What we know:
Layout lengths: L1 E6 L7 H16 L3 E6 L4 H9 L3 E4 L8 H16 L5 E6 L5 H9 L3 E5 L12 E4 L16 E4 L8 H4 L14 E5 L8 H11 L6 E6 L6 H8 L5 E6 L4 H7 L2 E5 L3 H7 L4 E5 L5 H9 L3 E6 L5 H13 L1 H14 L4 H16 L1
Parallel strand pairs: 1-2, 1-4, 2-3, 4-5, 5-6, 6-7, 8-9, 8-11, 9-10, 11-12, 12-13
Amino acid sequence: MHLYVRADADGKIGTGHIMRCIALAQAWQDQGGKVTFISHCESDALRQRIIDEGFDFIAIDKSHPNPSDLGHTLEILKQLKTQNSKLKTWVILDGYHFTPEYQKSIRDKGYRLMVIDDMNHLPQYHADILLNQNIHAPELTYHCDEDTTMLMGTQYVLLRREFLKYRNFTRQIPVQARNILVTLGGADPDNVTIKVIEALMLLEEPDISVKILVGPANPHQKTLRKAIGIAHFKTELLIKPPNMPELMAWADLAISAGGSTCWELAFMGVPSLTVVIAENQRDVAKGLERAEIFKTVGLYKAMNDDILVTRLSALVRDKKQREKKSRLGRQLIDGKGAKNIVHALSEQFAMKH
């Protein structure tokens, strides 16, 4: 069977969408399936990552709502189908810009379609399978086609192969957290990272070691380097680190955006503080706090140094709280999400044929 992934990434958004699609594509590949990414992707590094994984990559010049996108995508799918008429195919759509009309056009052409969503922001969803891997997903009421199969909740969290190697990792919880990981998204256009660095400066902990992750697309690297140059603690700015799970294994504590990284941190048992840097992260942060897995400081625009320093300081010094959060995170995310989705895709194909 062949998986066609339609997902985009530019300088501001989309990296997380493509990375979780890579996790699904890896699981599909492990079952002997073939994968093609159809994408408007502005990052050379991300494009190369897809190719290095052994997936085909077909570039889209302009993404929806540009009118050329849908026509181009359908033409690519048609050509690939023509080359092998017996090919069993699934199309995966991951992106908030894919409208109900876009979804329906693909479904109407006879392709099996899975839509990956986070927000329930559309008036209607047209899909054979609708996936929302977030903690609050089971509470959402979606309007979708009558025959849509719903995959809702954290049992479907997509984790890449490099994380699954750490399934039996035993985390040591120190009396006081020393190693702090800061990861606020690949681009961080509003430079929330600088706010976190300023708060860490106010934390009276000279013995901490801080690693700050930023993507190659981050436009604030110069400002960040200047800021960490005067820090009273050991600090390092990492751009596109090669081994994310290794960094999470190193960390005693993380300060993270409320996106897909949360699921990776939970799986790795890293007690974390979340900062909401986009509207679609609000419910994830709330859900994780309600489940006592992560603490949150809420929306970054309303965040001040006092809130961040107080919550961070409490977490740094409270071993019991960190032990509990680490344990609950690992219980919530078991690493089987991608396999569960591949099983659902295969099962649905068998049911309809």
